[in-house]
Amino acid sequence: MISLRELQRSFLGYALGDTDVGARPWIVANGLSADQRLRIYRNNAVVGFEKAMQSTFPALVRLGGIDWFNQMARAYQRVNPSRSGDLNDVGGDFPAFLDDQLSGGEYEYFGDVALLEWSYQRCLCESAVLPENLDRLSLHLQEDLCQLRFRVAAPTRAIESMYPLFEIWNQNRSDGKHSGAIDLGHGASRVLVIRRIDHVEVREVSAPVFTLLRAFADGSTVLEAAAAVTEMCCEVDFSDALTRLLGLGVLVEFQLNVMENDMSLESTTKPLALLARVLDSLQSPFALATRWYVSWQFLKSGWLKVSDWQSTLDLFRTEYHVPLLPPALAAVTGAFGELFFSALLVLGIAGRVGPLGLFAVNLMAVISYQQVLLAEGYEAALGQHILWGFMLAMLAVYGLGAIAADRLLTGRFVRPPRW
Fold first, then answer.
1. Cα–Cα distance for residue pair 80/16, rounded to 1 Å
2. 8 Å CB contact between 30 and 80
3. Is 25 exposed, middle or buried (0-12, 13-18, 19+ CB in 10 A)?
């Protein structure tokens, strides 16, 4: 009998292009043959992926042709299959994939075009950020420049290429017009992708403006940014470059390392102290919510085991490989641990025994099912176990909080530890 892991891997492989399907004998026809059913999934997986990629990279489609692009999209899908039904994010690694595939060839600039198009798509999904306090910039004298920093709007992308990237993209985008052959040796191009309120703007900027933006994005002060621009070219007019950059509207805020004169230390610490008191009062309710949430996951699992015991025994014989214990004893131990320690944790009895016990159960679940959880494609399932383990470790280290049955049973107040 084929294992669940092999069945899933075989089905996924066929959906992504493999010809051999070990899962075929296990597929119920019911009106359609197994091959017809498999082709439906392959068509949805491959064709849907290709169309999503085509809509994300239209300039590349025009540059390389639809057949070449679909071939590269299928090759990319093989190494970067979608992890969810949302195909909006599948193209994130495509520029790097093309760089690796086309490096050193006459089409290596395709990777830069892909990066520009992906940046454009990302900016479309973000909101514009408007300048906040730049109207007060003139109040700060020149002696403040060693402490003055600008914040670059998050939905802004800066791309530098050794090829005339902006011209290539502009001629090959869906609404662009060809104006003749492009000389790839024309020189480097520096492009900004900027999210405006109602559209995304793509524009080419000079080297000084680009260098200045990069410096501010890295957290440099105005003086440090000026030094970076001057180092690039001693004849650059820094004031002109800064004026042009401010005119683009991508610098949305400035800040000084020192406090404003009208801001006292007391006015800063009082709100922080109030916030700390509010958060302190939420420690026990949050500990209770954490206990109930993580306990519920194991209670469900334990109840499923005991409600269909024969299936549970079969799983422990074929899928769950618990070290040292025979399958029947491992099944009893696992079900008991999930139900018993979860009950302790829900009620808040026996202090840290509950979270420590469930932590051990969770760890053993990962060890016994590692052939699946550590395989490619199961990162989300492994992530759940890691999350549960972290929550249980926090409860074991910091305690269960004040809302627990232990307080009622002991009849005395035990101050909960500070989280």
1. 10
2. no
3. exposed
pLDDT of residue 118: 93
Q: What's the rounded Cα separation, in Å, for the pair 292 and 345? A: 8
Determine the CATH number of domain 126-258.
Answer: 3.90.930
Which pLDDT band, with edges at 50, 70 and 90, does 137 fall under?
low
Determine what percent of the chain falls in helix, strand and coil, rounding each to the nearest 5.
60, 5, 30
Distance CA 142, CA 135 (A): 16
**Element housing 192 (H / E):** strand 189-195
What element of type H or E holds 148?
strand 148-152
The full set of domain ranges for the chain reads 4-117, 126-258, 274-410
Cβ pair 123, 157 in contact under 8 A = yes
Distance (Å, whole) CA 339 – CA 323: 21
Q: Helices marked H in 238-352 — which ranges? A: 238-248, 265-281, 283-307, 309-318, 327-347
Contact between residue 74 and residue 9 where contact means Cβ atoms under 8 Å apart: no
Burial (CB < 10 A; 0-12, 13-18, 19+), residue 362, is buried
User: With bands split at pLDDT 50, 70 and 90, how would you rate the model's confidence at 110?
Assistant: very high
The span from the CA of 169 to the CA of 57, in Å, is: 10
